[in-house]
Every structure is written in C-alpha cells, then in structure tokens.
Amino acid sequence: xxxxxxxxxxxxxxxxxxxxxxxxxxxxxxxxxxxxxxxxxxxxxxxxxxxxxxxxxxxxxxxxxxxxxxxxxxxxxxxxxxxxxxxxxxxxxxxxxxxxxxxxxxxxxxxxxxxxxxxxxxxxxxxxxxxxxxxxxxxxxxxxxxxxxxxxxxxxxxxxxxxxxxxxxxxxxxxxxxxxxxxxxxxxxxxxxxxxxxxxxxxxxxxxxxxxxxxxxxxxxxxxxxxxxxxxxxxxxxxxx
Length: 241
Description:
This protein is mainly alpha-helical and about 240 residues long. The chain is built from 13 helices and 6 strands. Helix 8 (about 120-130) crosses helix 9 (about 140-155) and helix 11 packs across helix 12.
C-alpha cells in the first residue's frame, strides 16, 4: 500500500504517516541503511509507473544519497521530499518560528502545568494555528492532522505529547532541547549559558541579559551535581514567567 501512495501527485497526511512507518522497519524514528535503500528504489519505481518525473526535491535527495549511502532521514526530512498534502507538518513548523512563540503556545494549552498536551488540547492548538494563518480547513481534516501529528510525535504511545515530543515541531536551530550539544542527555553551565543568552535575545521584553547569572544560578540549583537533565529544564521552561 505504501508503494502505491508513492505514485500519488499529492499524498494525504495519513498516507504520509503510513509511508514512514512502512520504511522505518525497526521503529527507531529514522529511515536508514537498507530501509533507505528500499525507499529510494521503490520511490523511483513508483513515480515511473505513474508516469511522473521525480520532483526537484526528490532528485536532489537521491543525488545526495548516491554521494553518501550512510545517510538517514527522519519524519520531518521526509515531508520535505514527498508531495505531502499542503505540507501540513512544514506549515505547523512555520507557524512556530521561535522557541519563544513555542513556549507561549505550550503554556497556553498546558494550563494545568501537567507537562502534557492531550488530543483535544492538541486539536485546539492546531486549530488556532490554522485560524491565525487564515488557512481554510474543515473538522474532518483537522481531526486527521491531529491524529497524524499525535502518532508522529507521541514516541511512547501514551496518547499525549510531553514538552520534548512537541518541541520536535520546531526547526533544529530553534529547538531548545537540542541545546544538549554533546547529546549526553544533560546540560552543563556553559550550555545553559548559551541557551539563556539565546532566549534573552529573542525575548528582550521578558528576559534581561544582565540577569543571566541570576537565572543560571537559580536553574542550576535544580541540577544533579552540575548536570541539568531534560526533565529539570522542561520544568523550568514550563513555569509562568
């Protein structure tokens, strides 16, 4: 079925998700190795069978893969390759242009500070983004977007999104949870300092650069031996300012 979807001029949100899960055989969140090789081979075959040329994005991706067969792609990268209906994930990402805007939205929908946004709250969140952009939609399409987004980012399948899962909507350069630069699972004082400076620059009305040492001291008080883990950082960022 996924192969048949690849023949489409436009792929729906739910079809896109089926394609990703089909090729991500081990469920690690990436299409890589043999999975990626099969995806490229079947993409080329499907487009040919449908009488369609590869799009510029597809062609550029295939050429890049031929140069580096060790590559891998995640679900956000895949949506930039396939002709996904309205590029729904990219649209939602474009509406959350900065860490500051993301945190404002998160606080609004996680009103009880539970640390999670559930399905109904996610639907309202996506509805507001669509209305803000004056983008037409109907309830059936909104439901599809909601369920697909939940399935994509709900990594532990608990039916709700925590802060780190939801933050994957942000571009990498704006994703504060990727500030764990060495990928060791925690942030030290230098990495926290870089994060706070970035937040101050983006939200000068709320955060003052001169107070960074005070912010840093208060936040590091939550750390474990100078190591600030993601859960502690999430608690800090979710508090009302």
